[in-house]
Amino acid sequence: MRAKITYAVTAAVLVVYFVLVGSRGVLLIKHGTVLTVTFGVAVLILPVIGVWFLWQNTRFVQRANRLAAELEAEGGLPVDELKRTPGGRIDRDSADEVFAQRKAETEDTPDDWRCWFRLAVAYHDARDTPRARKAMQRAIALREGRPLSV
Question: Helical H runs in 32-91?
């Protein structure tokens, strides 16, 4: 729940920022000189890119949460079997061991979205966020029956 609140607050702050930046871009365009119109258009591009990025991330999170809910209903969510340090951080060796198991499971059944979901969790636990995201994207594509990008 804490992550959802953090995401919502961050998204709201970004939307306010996009509105402020966009209004400055409009003011620059209204000024009417060649230079200010050029800068105004350039400034308006930033919120457009930001909104697109926020939309893509929100869709990704919604899809991943849908997969998690479906997997939970099936009883297939990965069990947290990781050892932790006294401070609560995941022990690296423990994460690597679980990762090796999840990777082997995924190699045995590469067309099963459930395996890719569990591999994404293992990547995340091993602190490899880019690969975790790619694995989750693959799980989403497999679940939705979309073609996989290489």
Answer: 34-74
149 Cα distance to chain centroid:
17
Residue 116: how many CB atoms within 10 A of its CB? 26
Write out the two tokens for 48: 């457009």
Q: What is the pTM of this model?
A: 0.80
What CA–CA distance (Å, rounded) separates 56 from 28? 29
Dist. CA 71–CA 53, nearest whole Å: 27
- 38 vs 80, residue with greater confidence: 38
Q: What CA–CA distances, in Å, run from 99 to 39, 69, 132?
A: 49, 22, 11
- pLDDT tens-digit readout, 34-79: 999 999 999 999 999 999 999 999 999 999 999 999 999 998 888 8
Residue 67 near residue 143 (C-beta atoms within 8 A): yes
Contacts of 130 (CB under 8 A, 6+ apart): none
Output the furthest CA–CA distance in the chain (Å, rounded).
63
Residue 148 φ then ψ, to 5°: -90, 135
The average confidence (pLDDT) of the chain is 91
